[in-house]
Structures are given as structure tokens and as C-alpha cells.
Amino acid sequence: MKTKLKMIYWQSEKFCVGKLLNHSEIMTQGETFEELEENMKEATTLMTMDDVSPKYKIKELVLSV
Predict the structure, then answer these.
(1) Count of alpha carbons within 13 Å of 41, Cβ hemisphere only?
(2) Is the pLDDT of residue 19 over 90?
(3) CB–CB of 47/30 below 8 Å?
(4) Do 16 and 7 meet the contact criterion of CB atoms below 8 Å apart?
(5) pTM above 0.85, yes or no
(6) What is the DSSP letter of 50?
(7) Alpha helix segments (H runs only) across the chain
(8) What is the pLDDT of residues 28-63, one digit of tens each?
(9) Domain of 18?
């Protein structure tokens, strides 16, 4: 299945930076626009849990900040 997503992107001093409009929590960067696109595809897969086994487990983590 193919999904189309819209990414806003800009050039910082050293990197191309992008953020998904539909999922603002997904943001990444790349040295080139092409690398940014590939990193965004990978980040989206990881963040949307597309590659998680159906036998997953959940563990609560506690952080002291």
C-alpha cells in the first residue's frame, strides 16, 4: 500500500530539515534533499510502527527529569 504524505522542509546552515504536516511529531534532516527524503521515509515507518511484530510487548518507562 502506498501512502502520500506532505512534508514541509527548509535549508538550515548545514542540513535540509523536514517535518510532516500530518504528523508534526515526525521530523528529520539530511545533508541533501535526497537524503532528507530517505530519512523521512525511514522515520515515518519507525514512528508509525509499520514494522512492529504482531507479537509486541509494552513496557512503561519512568524518567527522572
Answers:
(1) 8
(2) yes
(3) no
(4) no
(5) no
(6) T
(7) 33-47
(8) 999 999 999 999 999 998 888 766 788 989 999 898
(9) 1-65
